[in-house]
Amino acid sequence: MAETFAVKLEERCYYPDPRCKAAAWTPDYTRAYSEFLHDPDGFWDQVARELDWFEPWDRVKEWNYPYAKWFVNGRLNIAYNCLDRHVTGGRRDKPAIIWHAESGEQQVLTYEALHHEVMRFANGLSSLGVGKGERVCIYMPLVPEQIVAMLACARLGAVHSVVFGGFGADALAMRINDADAKVLVTADVGYRRGKTIPLREIVNDALTRTPCVEKTVVLRREIPAADLDPAREVDYAELVARAAPDCPAVSMDSEDPLFILYTSGSTGAPKGIVHTCGGYMVGTYYTARHDFDIKETDVLWCTADPGWITGHSYIVYGPLAVGTTVVIAEGTPDYPDPGAYWQLVQDLGVTIFYTAPTAIRMFMRYGAEWPAKYDLSSLRVLGSVGEPLNPEAFEWYYHAIGGGRCPIVDTWWQTETGMHMITTMIGEPMRPGFAGKPIPGAVVDVVDRRGNPVPPGTGGFLVIKEPWPSMLRTVHGNDERYRTYWNTIPGCYTAGDLAVKDEEGYIMVLGRADDLIVVAGHNIGTAEVESALVSHEAVAEAAVIGKPDALKGNVIKAFVTLRVGATPGDGLVDELTRHVKKSLGPVAVPAEIEFMDRLPKTRSGKIMRRVLKARELGMDPGDISTLEE
Ligand code: 6R9
């Protein structure tokens, strides 16, 4: 891996309306951060006290490098905190989940209704022999039952492993076997773009090679309902109907595992990340509330699927622990037309909207006339996650969606971190291209290979220097891999991303370290060149890779998709070349530009550069189980 390198920094800055700062949960970031630094354990102790515990903790943390325990000997149940706490605390009739189907059908579950559903399903699972510590795989479309199943596992102390409903049989079988799941919860079908996705067929295929699975619970949605095989399948509705209504929440040790979740695998094979009950609850609760500034009347729509960490932390556990109303929608953002999401924002009065750059760039491609047809004045906070938010995409999101009114919280974090680690807290000045600063509670830095902080303007490795409550505890079945995160750079958790800081400490993420390109001795992060390309009016999305070159070591090749109305051709290639040269200088100029209809992405929407690279160089792309079809 190359040494540190110079990066050209974006200089634009947006100043938010001072009123949103004054009213925020964290009205003064600088003060909150220094209070945290002054007494980190005291900071988290305070946060944890806002939640319900069956037994208090003896110590906030125990740090035995690289193993951490948080809220040591504390006992709790996260589902209790997401449900019972609200039912008895004045939110009984408040909507917890509003589900929207592609067909237009809607379902509202109040906190009381969700509590009942979860208790019954938990009893149902326990009648199938699921108990504390047992693994349950959840492979479902985006329906309320998916969330019910997660919370039911948590209530029983069973460990869930949610597999995104868009995965195929091999990916599903690998995850079931790796987690050694005893029960699988699924549905007969999912619905997407007006088509039916035959989940049960995929499951039946996967089950031919998953001997650990004893029973499959099937949510039957199609009419007439398919016949089930009574030897191994159980009907979801019947299971719930014959289950007892009350199910006490099992008292869990803070450090008992809560779930396993496989990483999205943009740069390598998926890893089973293990999170535990206490610290994960505290971390997601705090960040949901403070980073999105959730107030009692807010309606939060996080467009991820619960099959990703973003859904686990900011559809399910964080927002429900806070007690907010969560919107979920089955389907895709541009079906039946590219206004579908904005219609829903308008109709449901969504106030906090959290999505990914891939979606924002797709909306840009369709043009601002789509959101302009709807009343988006309910929106108050806009969030982004998953990839660097290119300055151009920031601007578009800020103006076309937020009406120049809503702060944008670009949140950097990972499956491994469990919670947000970097963002621009509500009310702080926003810098397009920069995710922001470490949140109070996180110690994040940019360092060289030996762990020394690098000066502003110099690129380096993004690391986390102190343990945090919702950090991964291990990689399921591969603790060695866990230790690698902590022993690559001395004293630090290495995130695998490249980044750069400015004079004020704002952090810009430059892409994955594995994707770094070294041209004539200069290190170039993928995000810089891609953002320069995306800032051209003809470009919708861009991905760059390095290609070996006898003279320069590597040259840059760019793959570009165009906005609606733009035409590919040699003229545009020249123009884009000049454009990148002007913004970044000659070293960053792509030697080749290829126009594409779409870029290869993970099913969670991240560009998979290694697939482009393998194709270009005629190499083996490695594990591509998470590649979109
Ligand atoms: C939450 C999630 C983690 C990787 C991470 C980084 C990229 C996530 C980002 C971002 C720039 C942001 N990433 N958020 N890059 N700006 N705001 O996406 O988890 O699927 O594990 O991916 O995603 O490269 O290391 P996960």
Automatic annotation (TrEMBL):
Alphabetical keyword list: ATP-binding, Ligase, Nucleotide-binding
Residue ranges occupied by any AMP-dependent synthetase/ligase domain in the UniProt entry: 90-468
Tree of life domain: Archaea
Top EC class for this record: ligase
Cellular component, GO, one term: cytosol
SUPFAM superfamilies: Acetyl-CoA synthetase-like (SSF56801)
Ranges of residues in domain Acetyl-coenzyme A synthetase N-terminal: 29-82
Keyword ATP-binding: yes
EC number: 6.2.1.1
GO molecular function, one term: 3-hydroxypropionyl-CoA synthetase activity
Pfam families: ACAS_N (PF16177), AMP-binding (PF00501), AMP-binding_C (PF13193)
Biological-process GO terms, alphabetical: acetyl-CoA biosynthetic process from acetate; carbon fixation by 3-hydroxypropionate cycle
PANTHER family: ACETYL-COENZYME A SYNTHETASE (PTHR24095), ACETYL-COENZYME A SYNTHETASE 1 (PTHR24095:SF14)
Recorded family membership: Belongs to the ATP-dependent AMP-binding enzyme family.
NCBIfam families: Ac_CoA_lig_AcsA, PRK00174.1
Name of the protein described by the UniProt record: Acetate--CoA ligase
Organism in which the protein naturally occurs: Methanoculleus formosensis
